[in-house]
Amino acid sequence: MIGFPLFPEVASTIAGGVDTLYFFLVAVTVFFSTLIFGLIFYFAVKYRRVSGRALSQTTETTHEGYALEIAWSVVPFLITLVMFTWGSSLFIANSRVPDQAMEIRIVGRQWMWKVQHPNGRNEINELHVPIGRPVKLTLASQDVIHSFYIPAFRVKQDVVPGRYATMWFHPTRAGEYHLFCAEFCGTYHSGMIGRVVVMQPEDFQKWLGGVTEASPVQTGEKLFSEFNCVNCHATGGRQRGPQLGGLYGTDVLIADGSRVKFDENYIRESIINPNAKTVKGYPPVMPTFRGQLTEEQILDLIAYIRSLTTEKDGNVR
């Protein structure tokens, strides 16, 4: 784009709604700022002290203009209620990930974004996605707080160490768009930039194909065997932990009687701090793997556990 644009391009389904709300907020701010400062100036001039004018000696207090007082209380309340409702609807819409969304995982570290697609293809500081299809990102940080920000899509998500965050977007225009870390993360924070490439579906499939790397599920299955997870989570006499097949996305009963969602964050916590929420009926014998696995490896294990079905888990393979 020639010149200095005031706003980034509109390239996702939610971007237009975010911009409309923003313009509404700016318009309300400008209107009331102009009104208030105009009245201040008007009253300052009209009721200025003039030499020779006698000051009123009355001490009687009068109350008039109740309608005006009610109006300047109710009108701002209604306007802020509109802002709240409008903003909440956008927030809720952008929090509900469509079921058919393509899933991509991203790990942030000083000072780069590492992207991995479901088939194993990796990228550094680049994210290729197809146009016209919702994309879900699972985000993790290996060191400090980062923030994944794509201005053209009007989406931003803080990535905090120790837990996973998700965000999604639906690209509507092919092209290349800026990608930033929007949270100061160290000396070379300004260099933690990249690009998002939105491609036609057929071009994306060609780009995605021809990968020689193992997929996250395949890598996770290998790690599951290497770290002897199969010994305790397989059926049989050596079983010490719950069977994992079919558990993902369900609620599990833990030792204190409460229930937790068996999702990415629960699996990660169970790997790093296994005694935090032990499944009821099983002894707290699982060792911690803190410091033994990278964030990418933990995500690989999660991908494998998600792929397990009840039948497959019988042999955990």
The coarse overall form would be elongated
| Name of the CATH class of the largest domain | Mainly Beta
Q: What pattern of helices and strands is seen along the backbone? A: HHEEEEEEEEEEHHHEEHH
The radius of gyration is 28 Å
Q: Within the CATH hierarchy, at the fold level, what is the topology of the largest domain? A: Immunoglobulin-like
Describe this structure as you would to a colleague.
The chain has about 325 residues and is of the alpha+beta class. It has two domains: about 10-35 and about 70-215, Cupredoxins -  blue copper proteins (Immunoglobulin-like); about 215-315, Cytochrome c-like domain (Cytochrome Bc1 Complex, Chain D, domain 2), CATH 1.10.760. It contains seven helices and twelve strands. The chain has helices at about 15-45, 65-95, 200-210, 215-225, 230-235, 265-270, 295-305, and strands at about 100-110, 110-115, 120-125, 125-130, 135-140, 145-150, 155-160, 165-170, 175-180, 195-200, 250-255, 260. It has a five-stranded mixed beta sheet with strand order 3-2-1-5-8, covered by helices on one side. Strand 2 and strand 3 (about 120-125) form a beta hairpin. It is elongated and about 100 Å long. The model is unreliable at about 310-315 (pLDDT under 50).
Describe how the helices and strands are arranged.
Elements: H1 15-46, H2 66-93, E1 102-109, E2 112-116, E3 122-124, E4 126-130, E5 135-141, E6 146-150, E7 155-159, E8 165-169, E9 175-181, E10 193-199, H3 201-208, H4 216-226, H5 229-233, E11 251-253, E12 259-261, H6 264-272, H7 295-307
Parallel strand pairs: 1-5, 4-10
Antiparallel strand pairs: 1-2, 2-3, 5-8, 6-7, 6-9, 9-10, 11-12
Helix pairs in contact: 1-2, 4-7
